Amino acid sequence: MASREEITVCEDEVRSRYSYLEKMTDLVAVWEVALSDGVHKIEFEHGTTSGKRVVYVDGKEEIRKEWMFKLVGKETFTVGAAKTKATINIDAVSGFAYEYTLEINGKSLKKYMENRLKTTNTWILSLGGTDYRVVLEKDTMDVWCNGQKMETAGEFVEDGTETHFSVGDHSCCIKAVSSGKRKEGIIHTLIVNDREIPEAVE
Questions:
Q1: What is the pairing mode between strands 153-157 and 148-149?
Q2: Which family does the record claim for this protein (predicted)?
Q3: pLDDT digits 0-9 by tens, 100-113
Q4: CA angle 149-154-155, nearest 5°?
C-alpha cells in the first residue's frame, strides 16, 4: 500500500501538471504588432469557464482578472515606448465560441498596419554583426533604431532634405527626394556608409 507521503506527492504532481495544462489551453490569441520601437507580441488568455482574462505584452503580464461573470467585453492597455493604445475585443460568436479582435489606436489591426505602411518607412540592416531595425515616421520625421528614438540633424540639400544620425560608429542619412509624381509623393532612402539600404516590408 502506498504511504500517505507518496499519495501527496502524486496529487501535487497531477495538480501542477493540470494547472500548467489549464494555463496553456486558456491562450486564445497571439498578435504581432510592428511599431516604431520594434515588433511587439501580444498574447491573450481567456478562461471561458472562470472568465479569467490575462494580457501579456512581450511576455510581461499587463492585465490579470481572475473571475469575470461577463465573458464578453474589452481590455485596454498600452504597447511600446510611445504607449500606443491597444484594445482586445471579446465577442460571442455562438454558444461558447468567442471571437477576439485587436485594435490599435482605435483601428482594426489590419487598418492600422495598412495606414502604417503609408506613414512609415522601415529598413533592416546588419552592421558589424549586429542587426538593426530603422524606422522613419514620415509625419514627424522621427527616426527610431532598435527601440530607441534617435538624435537627428536635418538639412536642406539641392534635391530635397537629408536627415543625419549615427548607429554605433556608422554615419546614416535618410534622403527625402520628390518623385515628381503626385501619387508617389516623396521617396525616402536610407544611406549607411555611402551604401543604399533596401526598404523592408513587415
A1: unpaired
A2: Belongs to the FAIM1 family.
A3: 999 999 999 999 99
A4: 170
Is the four-CA dihedral 57, 60, 63, 69 of positive or negative sign?
positive
Q: How many CB atoms lie within 10 A of CB 121?
A: 19
Q: What domains can be seen in the chain, in order of their start residue?
A: 7-105 (2.40.128.180), 117-197 (2.40.128.180)
Instruction: Write down the pLDDT at residue 184.
Output: 74
pLDDT of 67 reads 85
Q: Supply the DSSP symbol for 200.
A: P
Q: How far is CA 117 from the centre of its chain?
A: 14
192 contacts: CB under 8 Å, gap ≥ 6: 125, 127, 167, 170, 171, 172, 173
**pTM to 2 decimal places:** 0.78
